[in-house]
Amino acid sequence: MALTRYDFYKIQGNRKNKDKVELYRFKNEFKDIYIVEIFHYDFNVYAIKFYLKNHSDSKKRYNICYKAEFKKNLGFETGNSNFIKVLNTILSIVIEIRKKDELASFGFMGAPKESEADPEVNSSNINLDCTVADTKRYRVYHLYTRKYFNPSDFEYIDSKSSSILLLRNNKNKETLTKDVAENYIINTIIPSLT
Known about the structure:
alpha+beta, 7 strands
């Protein structure tokens, strides 16, 4: 069964970082362009981030969601069908990367919605390192990845407290052990988020 997704293509990224960041783009059903950033880290770890192109200059680009009134003005009750197609498109990009790198592991961070990142509303879930525990996106990614990534191929190393999920490729488990992965998330990936 083929996934319903958007057509995507690879674009030229920042030449200075071309070995570390790959960029893809696609257009959704609202006619907005998404940018997908694939950050390549040591140990064949790829961190996936995405946002709407018109939010490119915002420091909150990963946090911003469509407002309910925007979707209703376009005749949509919810944005669920768009969101599933976005996730399916990201999955298709991940599959493309895995074809090129059979040791690839994939990291996802469930970026907090603006309200989840607001200390006045959610201070008990905001960590000192600025990550946010158990975000809505983290819970969705957690469920979605389990549907498509076989546990015999990937181990799920996740941190509910920082809303990060790493799908560690079992072909790479001798090098990227669980301890190495957890330390790498804490000491390399989280500090690079801010």
